Amino acid sequence: MPYVKIYGFGSYFNAKENHNDIDLLIVHNSLAKESIRLAIKSKKFLQASHPSSDMDITILSEQEEKTVDFIAKSQAKFLFGLDAMNFDLQVEDLKRLILI
User: For 53-76, what is the mean pLDDT?
Assistant: First the structure.
């Protein structure tokens, strides 16, 4: 089943008072179309739910993330997981988690 993990990184998530934007990473679990579609759907939801914020969202597959070691290098913090079957329920919790 397709799922994504959402991470936050950068000054907004490192408790710094002065931040210019919100940096998010979406990692999808496979290269299957359904997994990629879920990642894109998640990105669109985040952008639409916070239209006035300056949000930078990067999407990587698990394989790509392992290759570049993005999570460790950026000191990203795990925020939330979403799966295709429960997306509509889970995104409301995610929206409340990332209050802007």
Answer: 94
Buried b (16+ CB within 10 A) or exposed e, 8-47: bbbebbeeeeeeeebbbbbbbbeeeeebbebbebbbebbe
Residues 6 or more apart whose Cβ sits within 8 Å of residue 8: 22, 23, 24, 25, 76, 77, 79, 98
pLDDT tens by residue, 25-61: 999 999 999 999 999 999 998 888 776 678 899 999 9
Going through the chain in order, the beta strands assigned E by DSSP cover 3-9, 22-28, 55-61, 77-83
- Domains assigned to the chain: 3-97 (3.30.460)
- Looking at residue 28, what is its pLDDT? 96
Alpha-carbon distance of 23 to 2, in angstroms, equals 23
